Structures are given as structure tokens and as C-alpha cells.
């Protein structure tokens, strides 16, 4: 059992007891240790990395590289396989641009109908530019991937399969490992958007056997502006750089350049140093609490939330109704009341939830057949009391609008 | 410090005056005025609110550069629907030049409740639909 009250003390923003934060899949809160680590960089050894011979630059380089190592250990990868980006979106754009370079017109990219815009729009736009064919694994009525036609969807023309590990709308956790096997059997690459899964349970890239994996720091207690791209070493070595400039080169003449070793080949320019160090601290914090404990706590809370919301009249829940392979994201609608209005009323009682299309317009429109939804997303600092308060305030919402 | 002070919104009933505005918004939301579309129109445009995907369409009929009739339709939250409803009322009998000169502040005053940065987009969606529609339709002053 986690001592939630003690944990809450580590988050400065939660000093405000009136804040009930239920928008964690949008961004998580930041613990003091992460804020302090970033402040310490600026106050004690503010300097560039990989350049200065002087002490503080060496210290900055060590700390920044240490953060890469922490990420590598966290997901079961090697140091060279961890590229820092500004977030999952940039990681996925990097892949869309570099991986499609070698593709030919007619080659296929397979996504799913439940992708966040960040794992849809980059592929979609590159496909248009290069006459590639986009295909989609359908989502069934239960909010899970319909894998019945997977053997036809993945064929000899399929070069890339890219999917979310956990839906930011439905909470569905996808069986990436099984899909990786089928993709690899047809020599397709498997890309995983792990932005939602990484904060919630142990993710091991070797275990999943994915080729690439993308996630953001700010959803896992880290700062904004830092994210990660993992890639298998031999694949990254053969991939062209995404951006060019300082740090990513080995040797430069006026007419030609060669590239730095991994991972720096993919980190052009001065990186987000403080944010990288902050991300390392965030991982320390997560490991201190324990990923198993986090999963257990959130799982129990999801169960409780599904039961509690199930009792609210005129409320429709989207996504799987059982807790198996389902994470801490629950989307719903109060019949006839716009999600913005629900979120507004809740806001005035201190409860922060998301209302909108959740950056997944096709799923919301085509599969759920609505324009927008309300979403609560849970983390380890949330409690059953938060959910009780939410449910009582939902009744208030109905009083105002119905 | 409470979170509700950061983003004051339609339900923050802090004063009697706000209560009256809130009632007014809910009234326009539940009984929207000029709801529908004009088959015979001079201006027609619809836009999305990128935050939530809501869509509002406005049709306007001009005669001698004066708004003879205005309608709106679409789906939205209380703020965006009330704002469109109020805007269609406000536009009637306005001259084309007056339409073009409508300011964001006038719409926000019309709604009468303080809106945070995100809900401002809901409140101003109808004005954006109207102004973009005016640009597209190339209606000229005489």
C-alpha cells in the first residue's frame, strides 16, 4: 500500500488542498526533487554539454549523460539507443521523416484507429508526399483492437507498423508483443507510442521486441520539453540523421560531413539540458515508489472509478468496461451536456478534468460517434476520495444544465 | 489560493451580477435564438473550434448592405452556442461596415462573464465564423 498523503507532500502544487488533479494523461504533476535538480543545474553548473573543458561543463555533460543511462536502464535498453527529443511528438516525427526516406510509392504503413494525432498526422502527411498507403487496424465496440484481419493488413508491402501501447482516450492497453511478432514475420518495423504506458507500468523494449519506442518526459513526472526515442542500435546506425547542426557531427568540411556516434547523431544543437537531468530525477522518483506499486494503485482506482461512474445516471463510459489490460484513463459523456460545460463546472469546485477531442479526432468522431468527451486520467497521487468528490459534483453539473 | 481563481468561468457565481449573466447564457443555450440556416443568404461560413472540434455555421442575408436576417446552427458548449445565439440577434439591422468592425471585446462584454484563455475560444468562435465569412464572400460596400 502506498502512503498517498506522504507522497503528496513531495508535489509542491498539491499544497493547494483544493486541487483535485485528474488530467494526468495530458501531463503529470512535478515532484520537488525534479524541480530542484533543474534549479541546481542553473544555479550550480549552468554550461553547455559535450564542449567545455572546464569543470562545470564536465559536470553538466556527466549529469546529462547519466540521465540517458537512467532512461536506458528504465526500459531495458543500451545507452546508445536512447535519444533525447522534445517529446513523443518529435520522436515520432523523427521516425516518420527518416524511416519513409527509403520507402517506395505503394509501400504500406499500418496504424490503428485509436492513435493520438502525434502518431497519425506525421505518417499521414509523409504518406501523401511519398504516395505511400496508410492502413488502419480497426477498433471494435469494446474499445479494443480488432486483430481478426491482422494477417491481411500486414503483408509484404507493409514496411512500418506504428501503434499506441495504451490509448489516451479509451485506456486500452494493446498487445504490442503479439503484433510485433506478426510485423517482424513480414519484415516490417514496429514502432510503439508509449507516451501513456511508460508512466504507469514497467515497459521493457527487449520484452516487447519493438524496433522503436517513443515517449514524453512530462507525462512521467518530468518537465515539459524533453522526450525519448528508443531505437534498436543496428537500426539507428543505418538511419540518416533527422536534423543537422552542432553536436551531431563527427567531422565537417565545407562540402561534406560525417556523423557523430549514437545517440548524439540524432541530437543536433544544444539539447534541453536541465530538462534531461530533470527526467533522470523523475525516473529516480518513479523507481523509489515502484512501478508495480503504481500499477496496483491505479488499477484499484480504475476499478473503483468504473463502479462509481457506473452508478451515475445518464452517464456513458467509453472503452473497456473491465480492468483487464486497461489503464487509468476513463472517458465519458454526461448525456446532453457538452464536455466543456462539465469541465467548467468541475473546475469551479477545484477538479481538473479534460474535455474535448483529446487529440484523437478520428476515434472520437468515427468510433464513439460524438464530437468530444470528458476524460479523467488517474495517477498514483489520486485517491478514492477524489473520485467520490467527482461523482458528487457530476450531480451538480446535471442540476445546472439539465 | 484556490484553482477557481485562475480560470474564472461561467459557473463561478461570485456576484449577483454574474448570476444574472449566467442565467442569460443558459437561457440562450437551452433556447437558442435564430437557430437554423438561411437558404437565401449573402454570407455563409462555418468554422471549427480546434480545442474541442465544435462547429458553428452562420448564414446572413444582406439587403442594401444591411443585415436583413441571420441564422446559426451547429453543435457546441453553452458558451459557444449562447455566443452565436446572441451574435445573430446583435447583427440584425447592422450595416455591413458595422459587421466588419465587430470587436472581440464586444462579444465578451455581451457574454458578460470572465472567460479563461481556453473558454475565450468558445466565446469567440461565432465572431470568427462571421468575420471569416465576410472575407470569403467578398461582399463590398457600395
Verbal overview:
The complex is a heterodimer of chains A (402) and B (142). Chain A has 402 residues and is α/β, with parallel strands linked by helices. Chain A has 14 helices and 15 strands. In chain A, strand 5, helix 7 and strand 6 form a beta-alpha-beta unit. In chain A, helix 2 packs antiparallel against helix 10 and helix 12 packs across helix 14. Chain A is globular and about 70 Å long. The model of chain A has no long low-confidence stretch (mean pLDDT 96). Chain B has 142 residues and is α+β, with helices and mostly antiparallel strands. Chain B starts with 15 loop residues before the first helix and ends in a 5-residue tail after the last helix. Chain B is built from five helices and three strands. Chains A and B meet through helix 12 and helix 13 of A and loops of B.
The gist of it:
The complex is a heterodimer of chains A (402) and B (142). Chain A has helices at residues 4-8, 32-44, 55-75, 88-99, 121-130, 150-153, 176-185, 205-208, 233-238, 273-289, 291-310, 339-347, 361-367, 384-401, and strands at 20-21, 82-85, 108-112, 133-137, 158-164, 189-193, 212-216, 227-231, 249-252, 257-259, 315-318, 329-334, 351-352, 354-356, 373-377. Chain A is α/β, with parallel strands linked by helices and 402 residues long.
Arrangement of strands in the largest sheet of chain A: 2-8-7-6-5-3-4
Task: Identify the strand order in the major beta sheet of chain B.
Answer: 1-2-3
Gross morphology of chain B: globular
Quaternary state of this entry equals heterodimer
User: What share of the residues of chain B does DSSP label as strand, in percent?
Assistant: 15-25%
Instruction: Report the radius of gyration of chain A as a whole number of Å.
Output: 22 Å
Overall geometry of chain A comes to globular
The total strand number of chain A stands at 15
End-to-end distance of chain A, in Å?
A: 40 Å
**Count of helices of chain B?**
5
Radius of gyration of chain B: 15 Å
Could you spell the SSE succession of chain B in H and E letters? HEEEHHHH
Q: Strand tally of chain B, please?
A: 3
**Structural class estimated from helices and strands of chain A:** alpha/beta
Largest sheet of chain A: 7 strands, mixed
Calculate the mean pLDDT score of chain B and round it. Answer: 86
**Major beta sheet of chain B, specifics?**
3 strands, antiparallel
